[in-house]
Amino acid sequence: MAKKSWMERDKRKRATVAKFATKRAEMKANGDYAGLAKLPKDACPVRLTNRCRLTGRRRGFIRKFGVSRITFREMALSGLIPGVTKASW
Question: Which string of DSSP letters, residue by residue, matches the chain?
Answer without folding.
Answer: ---HHHHHHHHHHHHHHHHHHHHHHHHHHHT-HHHHHHS-GGGSGGG-----TTT---SSEETTTTEEHHHHHHHHHTT-STT------
